[in-house]
Design goal:
heterotrimer; A alpha/beta (265); B alpha/beta (402); C alpha/beta (418); A: 265 residues; 15 strands; B: 402 residues; alpha/beta; Peroxisomal Thiolase, Chain A, domain 1; 2 domains; 14 helices; 35% helix
Chain lengths: 265, 402, 418
Amino acid sequence: MSPELSPATLLAALAKALQRGAIRVVDLTQTLTPDFPQIALPPEMGQCWPFRIEEVSRYDERGPGWYWNNFSCGEHTGTHFDAPIHWISGRHRPNNAVDTIPVQHFVAPAVVIDCHEQAAADPDYLITVADIDAFETAHGRIAAGSWVLMRTDWSRRRDPEAYQNFDETGQHTPGPSTEAVRFLVEQRDVLGFGSEAIGTDAGQGYHLRPPYPCHYFMHGAGRYGLQCLCNLDLLPPTGSVLICPPLKIEQGSGSPLRVLALVAG
Amino acid sequence: MTRLRRRRGYEGVAVCVPVTVPYVRYSTRSAHWWIGRAVRALLDASGLQKADLDGLTISSFSLTPDTAVGVTQHLGLSPRWLDHLPNGGASGVMALRRAARAVQAGDADIVACVAADTNHVDSFRLMLGSFSAFARDATYPYGSGGPNAIFAFITANYMARFGARREDFGRVCVDQRTNALAYGSRVFRKPLTLEEYLAGRPIAEPIHLFDCVMPCAGAEAFLVMCEQRARDLGLAHAVVRGAIERHNAYSDDPIFERGGWRVDREDLYAMADAQPADIDFLQAYDDYPVIPMVQIEDLGFCDKGDAPAFVRAHRLTHDGSFPLNTSGGQLSTGQAGAAGGFLGMVEAIRQLTDAAPGRQVARRAMPPDTNEPARLGLVGGFGMVTYDRCLCTGAAILGRAA
Amino acid sequence: MTMPLMRPPRKNPVLRTRQMNLPPWARSRVAMGLTVAAAEGRFALQVCEACGAVQYPPREACHACVSPRLQWRPQSGEGRLIAATTLHHSNDLFFRERLPWRLGLVHLDCGSSLMVHLHGDVRQPGQRVRVTARLDRAGRAVVIALPDPETPHMNDDPMLREMGCDPKFRKVLVTDGKSEVGQALVRALVKAGADIIWVGHAEPWKKMPGFDDIADLPQVTLVPLDVTDGRAVEQVGGALGGKVDIVVHNAEVHRTYGIGARRGTDVARLEMDVNYFGLLRLAQAFGPALRARAADGAAHAVAWVNLLSIYALANFPPHGTYSASKAAAHSLAQCLRAEMRPAGIRVVNVFPGPIDEAWNQNLPPPKLTPEAVANAIVKALRDGTEDVYPGDVAQEWLERWRDDPRVLERELAAGGGS
């Protein structure tokens, strides 16, 4: 940090830059609608609720002067945040629920690893350590405490069927390999992993070892996850700052949220 | 007559003061109004005071929610004998029988028997839906909206079984229309030809337009008292020679072909000490022309199934060989609801008290040029189709006073 | 000779849509016995237990011996036509709009005389007929005379078509065409001559075997429909409601838990959300359009089918929460029947026993095949019946339930009846 700029000055400069548009706010959030697919577990398991919304009144006999709705959804519906308590490996971590995570973690730098060509060719594409090496060669070492976001352009799949991409062998969406996750956690001390797909782990993650390695290792290390992101193609590889505070749900495992990125220029 | 009379006769009973309140097609008045008109007419024609009426019978379909007792307060009467007789076309005979016993026993001295109904534009339709429990459950839902389908079945069966043709029913309708014109009906004023009858549009095959009565508003009434009282009052009167009634007869017959008159007709003639050949005219309840035919058979004028031939062989006008419904019947004067069950009785009284100008029936048994007025008349009552047949039948023989 | 039904012509959109005028619907309480039997496809009359006399019209005491011990017993309906008439005039709007209309008087072999609606192939007095009871447009039983023996195209008779909800030439919405029962239903409706079948399906990313073949049928149009999504249901209702003649609500969630076997309420909530609230949402979205088209031409809107379960009558504890959701749906279906009645739209409630599908895998036979359920529904629509209990298990449970529901409850609680 520059010794000439006090925190107060920085903050004022940030506010001014935002007002002028010199620093842009990019929305990385999918709109919450009933059509947006929710994660589908085998039918014997408990399921995550889809987003559902019902009018209470709309300037009518149910309430003449106002319009409002009731809605319901799961903690993991739509663009959402995963807290460490969400996974069995993170159940005992300190400050592991959405209401206890230190709030300064909700504003953090992000890097974007572009895999959109590989994902187009192979829906089951897994980010490898080699991919991370190549990224760092081009853009520098991933700083500790950063979000690592996997750009696949998967959010452009507007058809729910294509977004889920199921066949008889299960779901086929891209994600990180076991090695890549371990590298990011153990060698780079990242804050968390973010994906455009419905889960941080690949659709076939059940068959990796261990199953769902991103959940297992990230949350096991007290790190976080973001999924159903969009507009990652609007972000630079490095330099953006993510703002992603989940709802303050008592002992919550996650929540839908607004994910914003501050981007220079 | 070999059978002994098994019950008490109607000796000493007089019927008089026949009243008709002229019919109209539609009326905005209530039944109470028509009853009031009839009672007022009874008093005007008889010279009696209202307080003299100590007995009352009322027959009406459109009086609800009132019954006979409601009429007493409505008109300011205080009778000591009261009967409500919602029995449609049998009401006249039934009212006569009950009133006769009351005056014979001294329970009442002067009984007014009144039948009246109003007719609003929707009266008929509204009445049908709640006419009877069986109608509501087993005929009204089938769309006929009234007894047309039932009598279509009865007529079709009668035609198939006994060879009756539409022309035979036409004879009844045509001759009754002639009688109606002589009577001065307000509702039907033109003659009816057989061709017009046959050309009438179908309603429910084989029933066509002229087989159906026209619902009206109107009233009919008469007084019943002891003969002595009638003479003291100077009232022209007829006497009751016999009367029967029977309800729900022959209920095991799959379809109506014979009516309750058959069951008790020997008693009727025994009471009157007469035979069918002695009867000078027949006022037969005529909701559809097949019914007078069945009455001709069941009241003993011919055998079962021979009425078509009988009708072909006779002229049914007031001056014909077998006068039938000499004021035109309902088929040609209209059906004022329950008053349809009284119009035969009222016309019979007129015929026997020289009050039927232009249509006076002569004694049948006498040679034609004798021109002695009718002495004995038969009134048939028939009514209350609750399901597939009329339940009430009745008949009365009236005679000229000595 | 009954002419086979022809495809009705297209509607002229400029003309006012005809609305339903119901035939007379008032009946005494005792006469309702005819209606509830006809709703199940049975013709029953009261028979005196003391002397055996058959009663008609329905009544409170025997016409032969005045005993009050009258029981409804099934009748063969065999008899003879005594007389027939053709109405050319009626004061009743329903019949007035359908003149000429034929009625008959039939004498049954068992002794009663009945006024009946006549099938077109019943012509001459003296002809042998078979009388049966059908529900008319007002949902009340009327007796009708059918030719005996049967004649070709008998079901296409105009009078009979008024008494039923034949899918032929009609447009049907099947709310879940993806499930096994749903696929069987679509096939059965195609076979029954339905013109268009809108096939609802939810969660399009979940593929079910056989569904692609359904989607390929020429009569079928797929419609994304998740009955848990109120807004989506409303939109589908707005898009399709004006064209649907028959709604078949078969979407259901069936799990196999009682109370203690699974913690939490989320499974039970899902069962309620689809089985009960799904019905409520669909009824709100499609009800008004269905009622408005209840007399709209020869292929007018006519029926709403609910796939319930015999467990709706008596809770099957191993599937306890499912049973409760079906009981709730049943109660709501009764409300729906009352609300649809003024328009003459018939609500058909189907109470099968266990169906041979995935969630009943561990239940021993007898189990109904999806085809059997579908055929029972199509038959109910054709015959105009409203309370359908397909299969042996359903029939047996129904008998036990009618005998004494409390005894059945105890039997099921003791583990019987599975």
